[in-house]
Every structure is written in C-alpha cells, then in structure tokens.
Amino acid sequence: MLKEKIKSLAQELKEEVISNRRHLHANPELSYQEFETANFVKQKLEEIGIHKIESKATTGWTALIEGKNPTKKVIALRADMDALPIVEANEVSYKSQKEGVMHACGHDAHTASLLGAAKILHQVRDQFEGTIKLLFQPGEEVAPGGASFMIKDGALENPKPAGIIGQHVMPFIPAGKVGFRQGIYMASADELYLTVKGKGGHGAMPETLIDPVLIASHLIVAMQQVISRASSPKVPSVLSFGRVEALGATNVIPNEVKIQGTFRTLNEEWRAAAHKKMLQLAHGLVESMGGELDFEIRKGYPFLQNDPELTARATDAAKEYLGEENVVDLDIWMAAEDFAYYSQEIDGCFYRLGTRNEAKGIVSGVHTPTFDIEEDALEIGAGLMAWLAVSELEKA
C-alpha cells in the first residue's frame, strides 16, 4: 500500500532530514541572499536523481518528479529558504554560524522537509500518475515576497499545477499533530512609514516651537480610530506601531519624528479603504497642529485564502495518514505569508506542522532568538507532504 510505503520511507529518512535541517540551520542566509542554500538544495536534488531542475528568481528552484502518465495532473509543493536578521540565543550543536542571522521561522525545516518528500516521491514515482512540481523559493520574509518573483519567473507554468500545497512549522501545536483551515486564514500585511515634521528647539521654550513629539503622540493614538470606529467589527484588523524615533534630549525638541508600523486585515476592499482613511486622518491631524507629514504605505502580501475543496481533501488525507486525533482545526492568524500570491493564481492549501515539545522546553514562538523545533516532527514534515501530493494526484 502506497501510504505505508511512504510512512516507511519517511521513517528511514528521518535522520537524513534532521541532518539537512541542522546544516541549513547552522548556515542561514538572509532573504534574496540564499546562494549557498540554493546550491545545497540543487546538490541534494541531483543526488536523489532529480534532474529536471530550473533556476527561478535568482536563488530559487523548481524541479519535477514525474510519475506514470506525467501529463495527467500536476500538483506543486512549496518550501521557503530564507532566514532572519536575529542573533540566535540557543546553545545547540547546530547553532547559527553566521552572527546576526538565524533560521527563526522554521524555513530550514521547510526546506529539509521538502527535500525529504522529494526523495520519497522519487522512490515511489512508479506508483502514482501525474507530476509533482517542487518549488524552493527565496525571500519569504521581505516584501514584496519571493513568491511574487517566482511567479513572475514562470514557476507556475510549464507545466502549470492544478494546485499548490505549502507547510509551515507551528510552535503552538504539539509535535505529532498538524493543523488545517479552509477559506480565509492569514492576513494581508502593509508597512507604514511616517515622518512628522515640526520646528525643534529648547524644551523650555515651547511657545517658539512646533513640537513633532507631541504631534506624533496624538497621531499614534488617533490612528487607532481607523480600527475602532471605521472598520466593521466583523473584519479582523490590526494597526500596530513598533518604532518611534525622536532624536532629541531631555530639553531638546527635535525637528522631526519618524514612526514605523504595520496594518493587517483579512478583506481587500477594507484594506484599500483603510489606506485612504489613514492618509486622510494623519494628514489632517498633523496639519491642524501646525506640522507637516510624509506618509508612505508600502503594500505587502495579500491575505491568504485556502481553497476549500483542496484543503478539505488535504485534511482528509492527513487524517488518513496521521489519525483523526492528530489533525486540528486552525483559527485565523494575523501574521502574513507570501504563499498568498500562489493561492491567488491557483488553488492553494497552506497548513501547519506542529513542532512544540514542552518537556524539552521547545516552546518559543517564531521570530525569537530562542526559537527551535522538535526535530521528531520532521518525519511527518517529509512524509505527510509526499502523501498529500500523491493523494491529490489520485483525485484527478
């Protein structure tokens, strides 16, 4: 039985997948700089015996695994490869060897899992019909997102997949379990850059100044009205400011204050309307207080929507592979993912791989210096991806 064969191969390859993940973790590369990682991936694919490999988006790859009757149906599997500008705090044998760069979002696990799935699928290629297209992409962490460049470079063409499946680690789900959600799942993400300009001077002479610090303070509070009073409570939205820079002193008012933030939501019409409302409110408030404002909204990833039918089939396949008790329902998640670009082009299913192990202290969230994964989960990471792909090909 093909499912049991895949499970057996996943178990056999577990240590190899862990080894690959540790190599990648120790040698992280920032977005769009994944040259060593890309070379490693290509080398591993060629060692497997996969030779239909094409370069995409400079540091990305596509590769084909053809079963019997390869034109019958095509399904894609995707992994991202970039790391983050974070100093790792973990003291492990595979700790990052690059100061200030860390795989703190699990992309090392994603890449290693897909390499494992590729090896499994290559070995069972005579037992399924259709073609599996592998996408190893750069730059998921930095807008406009490596997925957008992969698409522009033809990653979803020649052949065009009927659907695409992506996997992401989830430190809030115990290792051994996975999570799925049909429909809207993750938020859009826009970056906000504001510069409030005034007239600085001595803090003891406020009557001679236009205080950009005071204006910025009012502005940050007032902007929350866009969420609390202009948006429907039925549409999740988040407006957060994470950086405020006023380079004055205790008695020195600066000439300007810089503010940076993020806006996220799950509705594209409201997203566009919110941009207009934020611009109108901000300019009006700053000008009414005597200041000037530069306000740039950099549009990021769209919201991510899982195709209901593909996701339902994938959920059923996961239950068949892992047992119903190990497949959980996901809630909406206000983080963003550039997998959303793929799901705008073809049917998509983006699911979560549980990597938490409280007994070992592996509980930190992504994007933190202490993030790590329970590596036993990589057996599921590789095997389940392979099983989901062949299961979907059978639904042609």
TrEMBL record:
- Show the InterPro entries listed in the entry: Amidohydrolase, Bact_exopeptidase_dim_dom, Peptidase_M20, Peptidase_M20_dimer
Gene3D superfamilies listed in its UniProt record: 3.30.70.360, Zn peptidases
Task: Outline the extent of the Peptidase M20 dimerisation domain.
Answer: 193-280
Q: In the UniProt record, does the keyword Hydrolase occur?
A: yes
- State a single Pfam family of this protein: M20_dimer
Query: Keyword set for this entry?
Result: Hydrolase
Tell me the domain of life. Bacteria
Q: Could you tell me what this protein is called?
A: Amidohydrolase
The organism of origin for this protein: Algoriphagus marincola
